[in-house]
Write a structure and sequence with these properties.
This is Elongation factor G, mitochondrial. It is found in: Mitochondrion. Its main location: mitochondrion. This protein has 766 residues and is an alpha+beta fold. It folds into five domains: 293 residues, P-loop containing nucleotide triphosphate hydrolases (Rossmann fold, 3-Layer(aba) Sandwich), CATH 3.40.50; 105 residues, Elongation Factor Tu (Ef-tu), domain 3, CATH 2.40.30; 73 residues, Alpha-Beta Plaits (2-Layer Sandwich), CATH 3.30.70; 106 residues, 2-Layer Sandwich (Ribosomal Protein S5, domain 2); 96 residues, Alpha-Beta Plaits. Helix content is 28%, strand content 31%. The protein has an eight-stranded antiparallel beta sheet with strand order 20-19-25-16-17-24-21-22. Bound molecules: guanosine-5'-triphosphate (GTP). The site of guanosine-5'-triphosphate (GTP) has 23 residues, from helix 3.
Length: 766
C-alpha cells in the first residue's frame, strides 16, 4: 500500500503528471489556483521586482560522476565564497566544499545536497567595472545553489532540490553524453517544470563530442537544444569557447581560470563553424519562438539582444535548453554558465507556486513573492548540525525574520525564530531576514521535512514532494545493550529522509529499515556508526516483494464464540477480487478498495468501520510470505449479527479470517520489483557484462556501443541484483558503473515464489 504524504492537488503546476515507481500521479485540472501567473507581477511592488529580478535559486543535476561537485567548487571559487579549489578525491585531503560529510569525501560522491548562497555579477559587467576602476558597481545577483546527489538511491534529495528551486543547470559529460541518471533527473525536472541550461563538461577528455551530446539531448531527453557556444581547441588543447550569440571568443586565464577574456575576434579556423552553429541556433529558436520565427521569414538576422531574449523566453517556457560547454576540472567555461544562469533562468516571480488554503476547503492559492504578503515558507531539508537541528526553508511569500514567530501549519505549533542563517555548505552566516524568493535556514526548530510555516494569519500548506516507496529492507540490531543512541539516530534519519523507513517486526522483534537501494541503507548504517557511535549487526538485505491475487473468490464466514463469558458473534459475506491501481479524486494512487454493499442492516453500520480496518490491516502483511498485499478489492455484501454478542472485535475477527481464507483460494501470487538497470563500461568487457546480466535473468532492452565505452539498459529483478556493485567492479577492472531505478512490479517466476514461500514457512516455524 502506498502511504504518500503528498498533497497532489497542490503540485506546482496543476497539469503535471507523475509516473514513477509504477505509480501514476496526476493532479486534477479542476484545481485552478485563484491567481493567474500574469497577475503575480501586478501584485509586486517596484522594490519587490527589483530585488526578485536579481535572485536565482538553482540546482545542479546530472548523472553520477559528471562533475557537478567539481563544477560547483569552481562556482564557489569564482563567486568568492571559497578561497581555494579542492578537488573531489583530491590529493590535498580537503575534499570539495560541497561534499562536507566525511563519508561523502571518502566515497567521492555527493550524498546530501548542500545549499549554498553566493553572489554573481555578469562577467562582462565585472570586467567593465574593473576597467572603469570601480566607478560603476556591477549589478549583483544572489544565487542559491543546491548541489544534488547523482546516485539514484538518494533520489529524494534530488526531488527535494527540484521542488524548491526555480531553475537548474544540467551537467553532462562530453564523452558519455546522456546517461541513465541524466534521463532520471530530466524526468524529475519535467515533473516540477524546472527550466534548465545545459553544460557539457569534461570537454578536455579524449573523445569529447559535444555535437553528439546535443543530439542526444534532442532525441533522448526530447528537449529542443542547441549550442550557444563552440569549443576553441579540442580535448586537452581546449582554450575557451566562442560565444555564438555575440560572436566573440571567451578565454580563461590565470592559474585557476579566474581571469576571463572576451575577444571580439573569433579564431580564423573557427569562423565557418561558428556561423554554421549560429544558424542552427537561430533555426531552432525560429521553430519555438514567434518573434524569431517572424524575423526568420522576413530573412532578418536577430541581434544578440534579440537572441538572448528569445533564449530566455523559450527556456522559461521549458521549450528549449541552451547548451554551453567547457571543462570544470581545467577551469574553462564555468563563468559563462553563471552568466547564463542570470540571463536564462527564472527569477522567483516567474515560477508559479501554489499552496492549499486549509481555511477554504483546501482551495489552491498562487503565492506572491512579495515582502508585504503573509509569510509562507516550506521546510525542505533537515540536518543535524553542530548546534542542533538545522531546517532549510524556502520562503515563497512574505519575509522570515530573526526573532519573529512562526506557525507550523502541519503540527499547529507556534515557534520563535531565534537564529536565522544563510548556509554555505557546512559553514553559515547569521542573517536578520530572508525575503520572499530566498532560501534560509533556522536552528533549533522541531519540525519534519515538508512542513509549511506561516506567520499564523493564513493557513496555507505547500504540496509535499513525491515520495517513492522503498524497495529494499534490512534488519538492524545494535551490538550494545544501550539503545538510546540507536533510537535517536533512527528518529533523526526518518525525519530527514522520507524514503528511509523504520518499523519493528512484531514477530521477530527486529528493527527493519527500508530504503531505495543497498547503498542508501549502507550509508545510514555507516552514519549510525560514525555520528552516533552505534555498531550494528545487519541482516541480509530483503527485497520489498508484494502479494496479490488473480481470481475473484466469494467468502462467507461466521465468527462465533458463545460458550461462557461475553459472547462473540459476527458473520461477513461477500467477495474479493483483483483490481488495477487507480487514482482517487486528489490524484493519489489507490491499489486497494473496501466496498460496502450491505443492505437492510445485515451488518449494522457501526460495525462496518471495524470490518474495513481489519481488511486494511490484513493488507499490510500478506499470507504467503508476510509482504504487503496490493491490487485487492474487498466487497462486503451481507452478514449477520447478534443483538448482545456482536461487537467491533467480533466483526474484526470475522473479516480477518474471511479475508485470509478467500485470499489463499484466489490463486495468490508474489510480485517482485523489476529494476531499470543502466550499465556503462569499456567495450572490451561487453561480453562479460552481458553474460552477467543474463545470469541475473535480466532482459536487455537497449544498447549503445561507442568507440571506447558501451552502455546498455536492462530490466532485471531486484532480487537478482544483490552485490552487483562488486560484480561489475570485478568484471570491468573497476571501470564499469551502473545505476538502477525501480520500474514496476511483476509476478516472480514460479520457482522463486516457491522458494520464498518455503523459506518463509521455515522462518515461521523457528
Ligand atoms: N577530465 C575531466 N574530469 C573531470 C571534469 N570535471 C570533473 N571531473 C572528474 O570527474 C570525477 C567526478 O567528479 P565529481 O565532481 O565528483 O562528479 P559529481 O557529478 O559531483 O559526482 P557525484 O556527486 O558522485 O554524483 C572526478 O574524478 C573529477 O575530478 C572535467 O571537466 N574534466
Amino acid at each position: 500500500m502506498l502511504k504518500l504524504p503528498i498533497r497532489q492537488l497542490a503540485t506546482r503546476f496543476p497539469q503535471t503528471c507523475r509516473n514513477i515507481l509504477g505509480c501514476r500521479f496526476a493532479t486534477t485540472d479542476t484545481a485552478k489556483p485563484e491567481e493567474s501567473e500574469a497577475s503575480v507581477q501586478s501584485q509586486l511592488s517596484e522594490n519587490d521586482m527589483k530585488r526578485l529580478n536579481h535572485i536565482r535559486n538553482i540546482g545542479i543535476s546530472a548523472h553520477i560522476d559528471s562533475g557537478k561537485t567539481t563544477f560547483t567548487e569552481r562556482v564557489l571559487f569564482y563567486t568568492g565564497r571559497i578561497k581555494d579549489i579542492h578537488e573531489v578525491r583530491g590529493k590535498d585531503n580537503v575534499g570539495a566544499k560541497m561534499d562536507s560529510m566525511e563519508l561523502e569525501r571518502e566515497k567521492g560522491i555527493t550524498i546530501q545536497s548542500a545549499a549554498t548562497y553566493c553572489t554573481w555579477s555578469r562577467t562582462l559587467d565585472q570586467i567593465q567595472s574593473e576597467k572603469q576602476q570601480g566607478n560603476q558597481t556591477p549589478q549583483e545577483y544572489s544565487v542559491n545553489i543546491i548541489d544534488t546527489p547523482g546516485h539514484i538511491d538518494f533520489t529524494i534529495e534530488v526531488e527535494r532540490a527540484l521542488r524548491v528551486l526555480d531553475g537548474a543547470v544540467l551537467v553532462l559529460c562530453a564523452v558519455s553524453g546522456v546517461q541513465s541518471q541524466t534521463i532520471t533527473v530530466d524526468r524529475q525536472m519535467r515533473r516540477y517544470n524546472v527550466p534548465r541550461v545545459s553544460f557539457i563538461n569534461k570537454m578536455d577528455r579524449m573523445g569529447a563530442d559535444p555535437w553528439k551530446v546535443i543530439q542526444q539531448i534532442n532525441t533522448k531527453l526530447k528537449i529542443p537544444a542547441a549550442a550557444v557556444q563552440i569549443p576553441i581547441g579540442s580535448e586537452s588543447e581546449m582554450k575557451g569557447v566562442v560565444d555564438l550569440i555575440h560572436m566573440r571568443a571567451i578565454y580563461n586565464h590565470g592559474e585557476k581560470g579566474e581571469k576571463v577574456e572576451f575577444a571580439d575576434t573569433i579564431p580564423e579556423n573557427l569562423q565557418g563553424l561558428a556561423q554554421e552553429k549560429r544558424s542552427v541556433l537561430i533555426e531552432k529558436l525560429a521553430d519555438l519562438d514567434e518573434h524569431i520565427a517572424d524575423m526568420y521569414v522576413m530573412e532578418e538576422t536577430p541581434s544578440s539582444e534579440q537572441l538572448v531574449q528569445a533564449i530566455r523566453r523559450t527556456t522559461l517556457a521549458r521549450k528549449f535548453t541552451p547548451v554551453l560547454m567547457g571543462s570544470a576540472l581545467s577551469n574553462i567555461g564555468v563563468q559563462p554558465v553563471l552568466d547564463a544562469v542570470c540571463d536564462y533562468l527564472p527569477a522567483p516571480y516567474e515560477v508559479e507556486n501554489v499552496a492549499l488554503n486549509a481555511a477554504e476547503a483546501e482551495k489552491p492559492v498562487t503565492l506572491i513573492p512579495s515582502s508585504t504578503k503573509p509569510l509562507v515558507a516550506l521546510a525542505f531539508k533537515l540536518e543535524e548540525g553542530r548546534f542542533g537541528q538545522l531546517t532549510y526553508l524556502r520562503v515563497y511569500q512574505g519575509s522570515l525574520k530573526r526573532g519573529g514567530y512562526l506557525y507550523n501549519v502541519n503540527s499547529t505549533k507556534r515557534i520563535k525564530v531565534s537564529r536565522l542563517v544563510r548556509m554555505h555548505s557546512n559553514d553559515m552566516e547569521e542573517v536578520e531576514e530572508t525575503g520572499a524568493g530566498g532560501i534560509g535556514a533556522m536552528f533549533g526548530i522541531e519540525c519534519a521535512s515538508g512542513d509549511t510555516f506561516t506567520d499564523g494569519s493564513v493557513h496555507y500548506t505547500m504540496s509535499s514532494m513525491f515520495v517513492p516507496e522503498p524497495v529494499i529492507s534490512l534488519s538492524l540490531k545494535p551490538k550494545s545493550k544501550d539503545t538510546s543512541n540507536f533510537s535517536k539516530a533512527l528518529n533523526r534519519f526518518q525525519r530527514e529522509d522520507p524514503t528511509f523507513r523504520v518499523k519493528l517486526d512484531a514477530e521477530s522483534k527486529e528493527t527493519i529499515i527500508s530504503g531505495m537501494g543497498e547503498l542508501h541503507l549502507e550509508v545510514y548504517v555507516e552514519r549510525m556508526r560514525r555520528e552516533y557511535r552505534v555498531e550494528c549487526d545487519t541482516g541480509k538485505p530483503r527485497v520489498a516483494f508484494r502479494e496479490s491475487l488473480t481470481k475473484k473468490v466469494p467468502f462467507s464466514y461466521l465468527h462465533k464464540k458463545q460458550s461462557g463469558g461475553a459472547g462473540q458473534y459476527a458473520k461477513v459475506e461477500g467477495y474479493i477480487e483483483y483490481m488495477d491501481a487507480k487514482e482517487d479524486d486528489a490524484g493519489n494512487v489507490v491499489d486497494f478498495e473496501f466496498i460496502n454493499k450491505v443492505t437492510g442492516g445485515a451488518v449494522p453500520s457501526q460495525y462496518i468501520p471495524a470490518c474495513e480496518k481489519a481488511f486494511r490491516e490484513s493488507l499490510e502483511k500478506g499470507f504467503l510470505i508476510g509482504h504487503p498485499i496490493k491490487n485487492c478489492r474487498f466487497v462486503l455484501e451481507d452478514g449477520a449479527y447478534h443483538p448482545v454478542d456482536s461487537s467491533e472485535l467480533a466483526f474484526r475477527m470475522a473479516t480477518i479470517t474471511a479475508f485470509r481464507g478467500a485470499f489463499l483460494q484466489a490463486d495468490p501470487i508474489i510480485l517482485e520489483p523489476i529494476m531499470n538497470v543502466s550499465i556503462t563500461a569499456p567495450v572490451e568487457h561487453q561480453g562479460a557484462v552481458i553474460g552477467n546480466v543474463d545470469k541475473r535473468k535480466g532482459t536487455i532492452v537497449d544498447s549503445d556501443i561507442g568507440e571506447e565505452e558501451f552502455s546498455l539498459l536492462a530490466e532485471v529483478p531486484l532480487n537478482n541484483m544483490f552485490s552487483y556493485s562488486s560484480d561489475i567492479r570485478a568484471l570491468t577492472k573497476g571501470k564499469g558503473e551502473f545505476t538502477m531505478e525501480f520500474m514496476k512490479y511483476l509476478p516472480a517466476p514460479r520457482y522463486v515464489q516457491k522458494d520464498l514461500i518455503t523459506e518463509y514457512n521455515k522462518q515461521q516455524q523457528k
